[in-house]
Amino acid sequence: MTSMNYINSQHGTINLKISTDNDLISMSQTPGSRSQTADLRNSSTVSEFILVGFEQSLPSTRALLFALFLALYSLAMAMNGLIIFITWTDPRLNSPMYFFLGHLSFLDICFITTTIPQMLVHLVTKNHTVSFASCMIQMYLVFLVGVAECILLAFMAYDRYVAICHPLNYAQIMSPQVCVRLVCSSWIFGMTNGIFLEYISFRNPFCKDNHIENFFCEAPIVIALSCGDPKLSMKLVFLDAIVVLFSPMVLIVTSYARILVSILSRSSSSGRGKTFSTCASHLTVVIFLYTSAMFSYMNPRSTHGPDKDKPFSLLYTIIIPMCNPIIYSFRNKEMKGAMGRALRRGNLASAAPAQKETLWRSFFQ
Predict the structure, then answer these.
(1) What is the pTM of this model?
(2) 3-class SS at 318?
(3) 102-113 pLDDT, tens per residue?
């Protein structure tokens, strides 16, 4: 619709003004309302994310990665499951050290299960989308298990400190009740901290690009996709990482510093070697886990990129859970002996039905 208005000027001339309905609407709106209307038109609710992962790799490369990661995942599950079985069934490993080790293996199984199966599926399918809720759940599980493992490693360092520096009071200090409380506290801290990080990560709406340049929903990448300024969320995640990583690190460094002083004061070289062997395996796990976690959650986003994020993500999602059983078993004589006994029990159990069948045959002959 077009409207025509005749306006008398002071000089007696008539000016003709033609305006359309759209012009009238735009004239009646204030600058603030026009910007809000533009924001509403441009905004869209993100209901799913696309995990880019290894999508841009060649089909042959994806097939090779699928075979490699499937083998690593199967190996990690088998070895961690064996450690859980041994530490919970072998009476000779009835000590706090192996109690914590069994729970560490359980955390490793939970950690790799939250990320690796999904990556394996995406390597052989073209659909790489995950729902918004699935991404939230995956991130919460990664937060929960990752934080619980950091806390548990600190408790394991404290356990080694008490065992080496206070051997006479070890059974009293690290009683079964204390060990259960320490493990429960690591899980509780992981749950509560996961809720906080989940709120920080999803406090802003998502109306931008929904492509995640990784093979799972990682917090810094997801936060960068949110609308508005993500600087506050990234700062809170950085501060939380300082508390979660450096607080256990202080306990670990203090424990091993005192262990080192105690070892050097001993005159027996054999005792030094055994203690160093036990503590070196724990320190190796700590260095791997904390280094990868610090790079992922404490580096500024400007230093991140798909080529840098994926290797570190692979390090703490599948390499470390696979290496933990190898490090603890091959550097520990008691674990080697327990594995040998478990294998012998398995061979005897498999041989028992055959022996029974031979006895029944001889009986009826």
Answers:
(1) 0.77
(2) helix
(3) 999 999 999 999
